Amino acid sequence: MKTSTKPLALIALAVLGFSTSIPGAELEDVGSMHAHHHMVMEQTKHQIVDYKLPQIQLVREDGKNVSLIEELNDGRPLVLNFMYTTCTEICPLTTKIFAELQDKLGTERDRVHMVSISIDPEQDTPEVLAKYAHKFGAGPQWQFYTGTIDASIAAQRAFEVYRGDKMEHNPVTFIRAAPGKSWLRIDGFAKSDELLRGLGDMDVFKEVRHPEIAY
Q1: Residue 213 included in any domain
Q2: 111 is in which domain, residue-wise?
Q3: Distances, alpha carbon 153 to alpha carbons 57, 117, 123, 148, 169, in Å
Q4: What does the mean pLDDT of the chain come to?
């Protein structure tokens, strides 16, 4: 029997209904894919959780030093994930999902703060993140963050996603309605419609409705 050599990332795109052309993503080098192959067909898992944000400083893709707490507590609903720019499997998919969510929010997108925090701050300088954001068409409401290794680890630990090695990270998305509220944690490859429903289910964002999506 001939074994398929088709990259897992491309298979995952087909399973999730995405185009196999991802802006800014290099999918040829997929040496770590076997570590996550079981997650492609896995259903997402939803949990309502509370997290204590650490007092750390991060650096936005525009080069500005900022407080994580102040950035996340600006009053807007939040959609947050962790990524790194040289990732060839999970991050291109989750970043594309964020790009699709941004498009579906349409004129309401500026009311939502979309946050992507690098788990590889040594490689992901503000300049690198800015180029990555541009490749995926990130608007001003979608910001990318880096910083020191210690700060990145502290952020990952706070959201219980730290795995000790960037190659072992899993797709996880977090949604919060407002400062002080609990978080919706979604483990797995949540499609953009699923994230949109998560936002629509929150009282402060009920008006963002799309009739083609079953809430």
Answers
A1: no
A2: 8-205
A3: 12, 10, 15, 9, 12
A4: 83
